[in-house]
Amino acid sequence: MPLGTPVSSQARTKALFDDEQQFIAPGLQTIALLSELAIAHGRGCWLTDHDGRTFLDLNAGVSVASLGHAHPRYVAALTRQLEAVSVGSFTSQARAELVRLIAELAPGDLTRTQLFSGGAEAVEAAIRLARSHSKRSDIIGFTGGFHGKTLGVLPLSDVGWKEAVGPLPAGYHLAQYPDPTRFDGTAAECLDAAIASLRHVIEQNAGGRPAAVIVEPIQGTAGNIIPPDGFLARVRALAHAHGALLIADEMITGFGRTGDMFASMHDDAVPDILTMGKGMASGYPVSGVVSTDEIVAAEPYSLPSASSSSYGGNPLAAAAALVTIRTITGDRLAENARRVGGVFVEGLTELALRHPHIANVRGRGLLVGFDLVQPGTGAPLDKAGCVRFFRHGLSEGVILMSYTPRVRIHPPLIISEHEARQGIAMLDRAFARLEQQ
Fold first, then answer.
1. Is the pLDDT of residue 134 over 90?
2. If we measure between CA atoms, which residue out of 343, 333, 362, 341 comes closest to residue 261?
3. DSSP readout, 350-411?
4. N or C: which end of the chain has fewer CB within 10 A?
5. Helix (H) or strand (E) holding 34
């Protein structure tokens, strides 16, 4: 694919976007509304709109398109399954092979998988499972976290409007997540403060008897925030000391995204329950909950139909996940994530030496972030400035979540070092345009 090829005419794309806006309800993702893009097709890491403009996709549907767009193996596998059977909860060859593969790849004794169709659905199921097993009710999450927008998980998500749709369910509490970029002290002190906060919430807010602690090994929606090393292991130890289960929400971080198959492996901390989704099926809506033989046997979770989902694990969904995960492992895409993620971090660090709007470059695998700041003061860049930067990037031919002060980069896992350097060059020019204004 060529470097981004913006053209002067946007007539067809804009017309289609405007036509849809007359009938689609408000509330679409900000990236879709700000870009006003209408995509005609995608290939690999590139998207092309209806006016022939091509863009390097550093968003991947928010960490979804692990194999990029129109991967030939993916297209072939889904076509074969569509021609066979696509719905139903009966055993299929694809699902039988998929759950066996997940059991082989998941850490520790996490060998039992139930499949769902969306992230929030799976997280709610994980909470029901934890409550079924522990016979307790309270759930503890972390500030800055995001686990979905359904009512059963909304209390755990850092969403500014959630109180306006209350009352929210009781029994949910938040401890402080260790964000080194917003802590005035060392990484060790940041970690100690977060664990102290968690201990206080467990003992004071949850009465010392929580059902589970749920945590993102890396917080994606908050800005790809990487906690200090050892965080997950210490959370697990504290949770277990109080009789609670550890739920690792790996919707964004699972299946090679961070350079390991699962991000919890970085701390060698095996959770009791692991939730997964997004990149596991490269665009098809699939999610899952994985746990141990003992935990999934708990009632009422284990009763017939108590943890089922009409769409979860249907033959088409299973085929999409199976071909995606096999390609991730067979093509060593976790290793590619580590290598190319390093190119992004190195390139952004070099850009920060020339562009004073960049701060706090961070990354693990292909989950990369940096902050947009006011030159001189280091304060977060204002909303208008962030939107200008996003649009400058779009004009240069690159798509990424760069319209807030916490910029997120999570391209397809197939991205090459050459394409990463192309992306860095596009961002370099976008920053130059921002500074000229």
1. yes
2. 333
3. HHHHH-TTEEEEEEETTEEEEEEB-TTT-PBPPHHHHHHHHHHHHHHTEE-B-SSSEEEE--
4. C
5. helix 30-35
With a cut of 60, say whether residue 7 has pLDDT above it.
no
Per-residue model confidence (pLDDT) at position 9? 57
Q: How far is CA 335 from CA 181, 226, 342, 367, 421, in A?
A: 26, 19, 11, 13, 18
Query: Could you tell me the two tokens for 394?
Result: 């779009």
Kind plus residue range of the DSSP H or E element containing 426: helix 417-436
For range 323-341, the mean pLDDT: 98
Per-residue pLDDT of 401-416, as tens digits, reads: 999 999 999 999 999 9
Task: Write down the pTM of the prediction.
Answer: 0.95
How far apart CA 194 and CA 369 sit, in angstroms, is: 21
C-alpha span between 166 and 155 (Å, rounded): 10
**Which residues, at least 6 apart from 393, have a Cβ–Cβ distance to it below 8 Å?**
399, 400, 402, 426, 427, 430
Q: Which amino acid is at 6?
A: P
117: three-class secondary structure by DSSP: coil
Q: Which residues pair with residue 41 across a beta bridge? A: 48
- Rounded Cα distance, 421 and 347, in Å: 7
Q: Kindly tell me if the per-residue pLDDT of 2 is higher than 90.
A: no
- Work out the pLDDT band at 3, boundaries 50, 70, 90: very low
Measured in degrees and rounded to the nearest 5, phi and psi for residue 241 equal -65, -25
Q: Say if strands 245-250 and 273-276 run parallel, antiparallel, or are unpaired.
A: parallel
